[in-house]
Amino acid sequence: xxxxxxxxxxxxxxxxxxxxxxxxxxxxxxxxxxxxxxxxxxxxxxxxxxxxxxxxxxxxxxxxxxxxxxxxxxxxxxxxxxxxxxxxxxxxxxxxxxxxxxxxxxxxxxxxxxxxxxxxxxxxxxxxxxxxxxxxxxxxxxxxxxxxxxxxxxxxxxxxxxxxxxxxxxxxxxxxxxxxxxxxxxxxxxxxxxxxxxxxxxxxxxxxxxxxxxxxxxxxxxxxxxxxxxxxxxxxxxxxxxxxxxxxxxxxxxxxxxxxxxxxxxxxxxxxxxxxxxxxxxxxxxxxxxxxxxxxxxxxxxxxxxxxxxxxxxxxxxxxxxxxxxxxxxxxxxxxxxxxxxxxxxxxxxxxxxxxxxxxxxxxxxxxxxxxxxxxxxxxxxxxxxxxxxxxxxxxxxxxxxxxxxxxxxxxxxxxxxxxxxxxxxxxxxxxxxxxxxxxxxxxxxxxxxxxxxxxxxxxxxxxxxxxxxxxxxxxxxxxxxxxxxxxxxxxxxxxxxxxxxxxxxxxxxxxxxxxxxxxxxxxxxxxxxxxxxxxxxxxxxxxxxxxxxxxxxxxxxxxxxxxxxxxxxxxxxxxxxxxxxxxxxxxxxxxxxxxxxxxxxxxxxxxxxxxxxxxxxxxxxxxxxxxxxxxxxxxxxxxxxxxxxxxxxxxxxxxxxxxxxx
Length: 663
Hints:
Layout: E1 8-11, H1 15-27, E2 31-36, H2 44-48, E3 51-54, H3 67-77, E4 81-83, H4 93-101, E5 105-106, H5 111-118, H6 120-129, E6 150-154, E7 164-166, H7 172-187, E8 192-196, E9 202-210, E10 216-228, E11 231-237, H8 244-260, E12 265-276, E13 279-288, H9 295-302, H10 306-314, E14 329-336, E15 338-339, E16 345-346, E17 349-350, E18 353-355, E19 360-361, E20 369-374, E21 381-382, E22 389-397, H11 400-413, E23 415-417, H12 423-431, H13 433-436, H14 458-475, E24 494-500, E25 507-514, E26 517-519, E27 525-530, E28 534-539, E29 542-551, E30 554-559, E31 562-568, E32 579-580, E33 583-585, E34 590-594, E35 602-603, E36 608-614, E37 617-622, E38 627-631, E39 638-639, E40 644-649, E41 656-657, E42 661-662
Parallel strand pairs: 1-2, 1-4, 2-3, 4-5, 19-20, 33-42
Antiparallel strand pairs: 6-7, 6-8, 9-10, 9-12, 10-11, 11-14, 12-13, 14-22, 15-16, 17-21, 18-23, 20-22, 24-25, 24-31, 25-26, 27-28, 28-29, 29-30, 30-31, 32-41, 33-40, 34-36, 34-39, 35-38, 36-37, 38-40
Helix pairs in contact: 4-5, 11-12
């Protein structure tokens, strides 16, 4: 087969993966085209492409899921190839066929291969026939107590959407319906099925690359067991602690799976591994017929650029040369805009500061070090329409321990302001004794303390109060040399009230500002240096430098003792901002997709009152206590963060509070 040459690639995706493909394309001398929604118009990937085409609208259904518009954009921009990235249309066989029918090169597997693996139900039967170890499927209607626990899964798509764990048979019908609804919303296919759920299983996957000559390259395996909501959080290569026999079973199974469907391009075969008497038990989960989010860890340990391999194979070339064994150890974390302590509620809004000190961005590793793959920069807005992942941070080191330690340090020193993230959780996971010992499974985070130890934010709050006072002094046009709140006769300290990002009790900082600078009553803290951006405090003989950034009413503080963000609370509350006690406020912007109760109904604590859809996930809003409910929204309504969704009136007399109870 004669090789062809791709001249210009359109990436039918957004954010981080678009930037990742552009990086390799530029190195290979290939032109780049971005497509973007209205919500994404200011993100970096749009400006970095040679050409960019607008897809009118903001939701995925209006934009990135419109294959016809994507192909039209490619033709308009003169692209001769389309790379689908991951998610959206990346595993849509009809889209792949439409790309090929339009005379464009599809950088991915054949449509028939996608079809073969597109239905997880059909794929399991195909893999069993090919000799790949497979779990048995269980019909929901035929499930018994002996089958528990069960995992309900969407037949199409992935990424944890359309998945539910069922431990009580009575819950099965409701969980099947929820999974089906979520699958229909995310993938356009409501089909779901059940299989056994391994409580202590590990999620291990194998990277493969196939070409049109029938070659299949197996590039080791990755462990992706640390997951939340069935979505991966920490991934590493190679997988730790596997026996040689288990590793051979995984690699041989992946090779058989790829060969069975004549696989072309980069793909991943996923397995569950559990310890059983007589040896590990391995069972096929699914095959992702696309590039995986976690591909950088494989790139690191095998010294390969998987995007380049995809392009070369699409041009008719053969699979690349690669070492037979991995070198060193690589680990990747997914940094999400979400609050783990609040059931992983996704966050949206502006990233005031986004600075992560990695040595490179997107480019393949040349030596041990760190890499950042992100779709956002400081000042970017995180939309409610798409996934909450902010970045992937990857470290390649000589050993597993070295890689984990380096990555924890990078995350700890990062400056991330404006949104609550899972950064602190990631740091704790990377330093956790059980994680370091490899004693993990897919349900590890189900028993992990998500909130963690409550940080001592007293010093950070003091630094914030001083920086705010200095900013106010600098903003004055006269008498700047006199500290804020200076008086000839001091009567009482000034008070600054700060509300921590992510919730929690307000912090009240009392301070004096006099001729000799700042002081705190009945406190051993001394102010060594004060400015709107830097405050140095000495606490019990230890000097701590605080970097401060003030953005509107937000104050962000970073130091060697951690990071903290606050909102400055107003001295007086507008009566219009008060809400009734028992009010449930929207925790994020989203769409109301279900309201299973009516106004006037008596509800119990924990009962689902309504369901919000935001950032491609469904979120149940539950009653905070027993009482009578008043529903304030309707199905299909768009809500903003802080909007009143419902009010649950208990039998106690109604009260008014400054803040409602957040859902």
